[in-house]
# Entry
Amino acid sequence: MNKESEKILVTGGTGLVGARLVPRLIEAGFACMTLVRNEKDVPAGATAVEADLLDASSLAAVKDVSAIVHLAAVFRTQDTDLIWKSNVEGTRNLINAARTHTPHSRFILASTAHVYKKNNPHPGREDDPVVPQQAYPASKLTAENELRESGLNWSILRFPFVYGDGDEHLETLPQHIIAAKWHPAMRMSTIHHRDIATAVHMALRGEMDSRMVNISDEAPTSLYELARLVGVTIESSSDPLPNPWHLHIDSSLARSLGFQPAVRTVYQAVQEKLL
# Structure
């Protein structure tokens, strides 16, 4: 892709991931258009495109782009109808707009490692059978399938727990650990925002075309350690760990494609003040 002549449309460009990804794409020389509603501010250097994923008629702006990075999603809410409507219908509308206006563009979908079964017998792999039970991962899996069957040039990046760059996501983790009553020895895969940008760059170059790819760093870390890194001590336990591979993904496919995380562990992020 010739970065100087090609435009990229990013959805969710003002969200937790997008607000940190878009500046990195711009710094790398990409021309970024960011889809927004209600005249929201966009990262410096990006062009705001006012549209709504749930209003198919507003998505003609995709005609000007050669790649779409679809980050927008609804996650932490009890409104399951909103999750399904936003994550499936919104993605479907964007896919249809791309097929109509720019059928040769790349369509990169951000998905989630939560699609893997809680009782998976090993770290989640891209070829594992998946039957997610909760609304968010189930809706993302449906969106994945719609994209795979769209006829577009697609890639799907499955991210685990995302953190860094002052997003305070890691700081909120202990409250979710406690609420979910997760075992403190459970190890969770993670990915820093810097390395999301690395993966998206690779996808924009075509290195992940027609693939679902797990993207994670090199060291799944225990929930007990993650909580302590942000100053919270959760209850200890030596009880047997049920579902030991839950939230742990296998990123060997990404490595075989050349992906190498710059932030290899959460401990490195702490040492280099990248949280």
In short: The mean pLDDT is 95. The chain has one domain: 7-163+191-217+251-262. The first helix runs from residue 18 to 27. The domain at 7-163+191-217+251-262 is CATH 3.40.50.720 (Rossmann fold).
